[in-house]
Amino acid sequence: MKKILALLFTSLAITAAAQQSGTARQSVTIGGEVTAPLTLTAADLSAMPRSTAVSKDKQGTPHTFSGVSLADIFKKAGVTTGRDLRGDNLAKYVLVTCADNYQVVFSLAELDSSFTDRVVILADQMEGKPLPAGTGPFRVIVPGEKKPARNCFQVTAIDIKFAKK
Ligand SMILES: Nc1nc2c(c(=O)[nH]1)N[C@H]1C(S)=C(S)[C@@H](COP(=O)(O)O)O[C@H]1N2
Ligand SMILES: [Mo]
Predict the structure, then answer these.
(1) Looking at ligand 1, which atom is closest to the CA of residue 59?
(2) Which of 18, 19, 21, 35 is the least buried, fewest Cβ under 10 Å from its Cβ?
(3) pLDDT in tens, 46-84
(4) Residues 73, 93, 121, CA angle at the centre, nearest 5°?
(5) How many CB atoms lie within 10 A of CB 12?
(6) pTM of the full predicted structure?
(7) C-alpha angle 32/104/125, rounded to 5°?
(8) What domains are there in the chain, each with its CATH number?
(9) Ligand 1 within 6 A of 100 CB?
(10) Whose CA is closest to atom 6 on ligand 1?
(11) What gap in Å lies between CA 45 and CA 17, rounded to an integer?
């Protein structure tokens, strides 16, 4: 019995440690108001068109990130974009969830190329290398913001939701 408890405790501790260091999830799910829910791995992302985004860190130092634009991910998942992003669809928002349960939202329109030229990406590299320890494997990068609080790291899920009542 003691052995079983010890084993159970060890496995729980390992799971917790993996979650802390971000090694638990090596994929991002795209769900909610989509026609084709996706689970994207690093290999899936590397097969998609690449985009870059420059953003300053908390210290004010700029970094160049690369990955796949949320717009291209949304195209693949079947999210309403462009001409279809009107009427009730303007009440849709994007909820990004991270391994530490940090969450940020965007309105769908603020990520759409028919509304803005700003390209928000799901980055898997910084300065051409995998993301620094504890911030990968995937990080949302929002260029042009005054602070990097929405550059959420260890992203596990991106869900499209409807705010409309
Ligand atoms: N998953 C996750 N992402 C996060 C945070 C967090 O607590 N959890 N903090 C945010 C905040 S408040 C800031 S200021 C930046 C810090 O990023 P930097 O280390 O690149 O400056 O990360 C953002 N991304
Ligand atoms: Mo912050």
Answers:
(1) 21
(2) 35
(3) 999 999 999 999 999 999 999 999 999 999 999 999 999
(4) 35
(5) 10
(6) 0.88
(7) 95
(8) 25-162 (3.90.420.10)
(9) yes
(10) 102
(11) 26
